[in-house]
Amino acid sequence: MKITKDLYHGSLALLTDFYQLTMAYAYWKSDKGEQEAVFNLFFRKHPFQGGFTLAAGLDYVIDYCRNFRFGKEDLEYLSKMKAPDGSPQFEKGFIDYLSKLKFTCDIDAVEEGTVVFPNAPMIRVRGPLIQCQLLETPLLNLFNFQTLIATKAARINLAAKGEPVLEFGLRRAQGIDGALAASRAAYIGGCTSTSNVMAGKLFGIPVSGTHAHSWIMSFESELEAFEAYADAFPDQCVFLVDTYDTINGVKNAIKVGEILRSKGKEMIGIRIDSGDLAYYSNKAREMLDEAGFPEAKIVASNDLDENIIHSLKGQEASVNVWGVGTKLVTAYDQPALGAVYKLSAVKEESGEWVPKIKISQQSLKINIPGIHNVKRYYSNGKAVADMIYLEDQEINPRGTVIIDPTDATRRKRIMPAFYKEEELLKPIFKNGKLVYKSPKIKDIRERAQNQLASFDKTHKRIVNPHLYPVGLEENLHHMRMNLVLKAKQMENGEA
């Protein structure tokens, strides 16, 4: 995938917040720019009040980092920026520094299609402070949105209980970028196809679609429109039946279905895009079955999401395929994931790594210090717990305790020796060189399905999901608490 090259034809280094550049300049002025640091990208709460989140966007991150550089036009723009007093915003020496800047960081990340949880790092960046800082905004931009949409798609597909979900939100998406990223993430989350032809071309996603009401309206009658469509596409007829009257529309679809059958072809089905979907889908099913079309599919659309699909399932609606657009590609009920990017360690001149902590009046906003990773433990193929641990400390295989980072009273004892384990952060870049081979998108989608299948159904409930245990290994918990107490003493003038 070459999104940057194909769509933007150049560097995206200026796709960042201004304060990232001012901090980079201040690091450079303070001779701290090359000091090594570690940052973690993570989120604090599941979106949609759900019990899981599905990671997506890593391929975009890879593409961005591989093409990271300040081009001639970028540097010219920065060199012309003025401070409030009219002087250059950035010294020429800093502009020269940026002109020679090459990406040299280590990046470890969860693979796309991985189920992830709050406070656990999804991306870890290690490298010179300036580079790490400049990556904050673009990495958040690239990972936040696709993870959000992949999660929404996964929830919708879970509500559909294995029935195909078609994504066709292009016309309602937030611009070209939003549409492409949403189509890609929706496919990773479980959708079977997209209406977005450019996404099909760029990512290799199956494309699908039938016709709109305008097709029907352009003919003298609905029956004539169906006949003409069947003549054009005899092997892929799904008729939109609610342009005028849904019941009559189903009757006309049946008439054309009989014509197709006389020619050795079969009508695939009908689509209902308005009205009482439970009622009309059940009536349509009765009519199709009585007419000898029990295999004809009924596609439902019209502002669907996981909650409406869950409700229609409860009403025993006769829907076989679900078309979802606006509420999927816009993450309608939660427009942002809210992932953050926090400094967790810096390397002193002595070579020692020093953990860093940000304290807050809200325990939810106290970051996890140090250089850490995440292990997932499985028993008989089912995920039982995730442990966030310090990479330089050994874990007792006979037993350890994991402690919820937001509530120390929630604890779980695990015995690693009795579980199969998976380390979630995988090496992506080493010293700026790509060491990871991106899977094909269909393999990412399959990973997502396998990951979701490894979690108990209670964690995947649409409403009031059961809490999956994620915690800090006890040594990390104690280190974090000691740093919090020390920071509070400094704040109170006690140290």
Automatic annotation (TrEMBL):
CDD domains associated with the record: NAPRTase_A
GO MF, one example: nicotinamide phosphoribosyltransferase activity
Keyword annotations: Glycosyltransferase, Ligase, Phosphoprotein, Pyridine nucleotide biosynthesis, Transferase
Family to which the UniProt record says this protein belongs: Belongs to the NAPRTase family.
Summary of the function given for this chain in its UniProt record: Catalyzes the first step in the biosynthesis of NAD from nicotinic acid, the ATP-dependent synthesis of beta-nicotinate D-ribonucleotide from nicotinate and 5-phospho-D-ribose 1-phosphate.
Example of a GO biological process term: NAD+ biosynthetic process via the salvage pathway
Keyword Phosphoprotein tagged: yes
Protein name, per record: Nicotinate phosphoribosyltransferase
Keyword Hydrolase attributed: no
Post-translational modification, as annotated: Transiently phosphorylated on a His residue during the reaction cycle. Phosphorylation strongly increases the affinity for substrates and increases the rate of nicotinate D-ribonucleotide production. Dephosphorylation regenerates the low-affinity form of the enzyme, leading to product release.
E.C. number(s) listed in UniProt: 6.3.4.21
Classification via InterPro entries: Aldolase_TIM, N/Namide_PRibTrfase, NAPRTase_C, NAPRTase_N, Nic_PRibTrfase-Fam, Nic_PRibTrfase_pncB, Nicotinate_pribotase-like_C
Pathways per UniProt: Cofactor biosynthesis; NAD(+) biosynthesis; nicotinate D-ribonucleotide from nicotinate: step 1/1
Listed PANTHER family: NICOTINATE PHOSPHORIBOSYLTRANSFERASE
Domain named Nicotinate phosphoribosyltransferase N-terminal: residues: 14-144
Gene Ontology CC, one term: cytosol
Annotated ranges, domain Nicotinate/nicotinamide phosphoribosyltransferase: 167-348
Annotated catalysed reactions: 5-phospho-alpha-D-ribose 1-diphosphate + nicotinate + ATP + H2O = nicotinate beta-D-ribonucleotide + ADP + phosphate + diphosphate
Nicotinate phosphoribosyltransferase C-terminal domain location: 373-479
Signal peptide: none
Pfam families, sorted: NAPRTase, NAPRTase_C, NAPRTase_N
